[in-house]
Amino acid sequence: MSLSVQVLAFLWLATYPPNHGHQCPQSEYLQPSLEQEKLLFTLDISQRTLGKLSQDLETLRQTPHNAALNVEVGLDYLTIANSENFTFLARAVEHFEIARLEHPSEATLLMYLGLATGSQALDMAPSVMKRLKLARQGFKYMDQAVAKAPNCVYLRMLRGTAQLLAHPVLRRAAALKEDADRVKAFMGSPEFERLPDFQKAKYHLFLGSFLGRDKKEDGEARQHWEQALLLAKESHVGREAASRLAGSHESVGYSGD
Fold first, then answer.
1. In whole angstroms, what separates CA 183 from the centre of its chain?
2. What mean pLDDT comes out for the span 136-150?
3. Cα dihedral angle (89, 240, 21, 184), rounded to 10 degrees?
4. Contact by Cβ (8 Å): 155, 145
5. CA distance linking residue 24 with residue 36, whole number of Å
6. What is the gyration radius of the CA atoms in the chain, in angstroms?
7. Which domains does the chain have, with CATH numbers?
8. Shortest CA distance to 40 belongs to which of 61, 57, 22, 54?
9. For residue 158, what pLDDT is reported?
10. Is 216 in a helix, a strand, or coil?
11. Residues 28, 108 contacting (CB under 8 angstroms)
């Protein structure tokens, strides 16, 4: 069975809490000042590294139950894991769960937890049933996140990205189309135009990848990939857009047993 959470080129994407520009409520665990918003955008365009993880863990040791720091460390582990280091994915889940003790209903945190949980289904070592259970649990968290903030297109883009390569047995097609439709509508709004270029590129990459599944929509898909490349050429988002345009993109994950 397959849940391919290609939330890596898309989702890093999940390297910062969404704001009102994405039609999202402010995260409970982080109420950013203007300076913090600048810092979060810096994180959004930078790559998380083992060095950053080490620094964040050292900071966390001083206040081990701080929700925002646990989310940050969880995102470090989730990103660096690259859907391959399953020890790091398990640690990401642990830190998101610690943060959830203080904020059990926070939508963005539930989405991150769902992504980390679902990514563990890519581990070929457990049984098929165990991996299927992880995939379903991951989507359960993602669905809860969207239910708590249905107008937050950022969360819909993240869930949609995970659903793009979900195995048919998981029955995600209807939710995927709903998410893509909401993202497409948002991309025609003034709010979308006010987003930084790098963030706009992420939406173009997702929508292009959704449309690219249908050969009839290939022309429109390529337009979105071209926009993503134009807006974020030097980033992982731009690199994936370029590979999709060249027809050389390889999806993360496995195709089944």
1. 14
2. 95
3. -110
4. yes
5. 17
6. 17
7. 3-246 (1.25.40.10)
8. 22
9. 92
10. helix
11. no
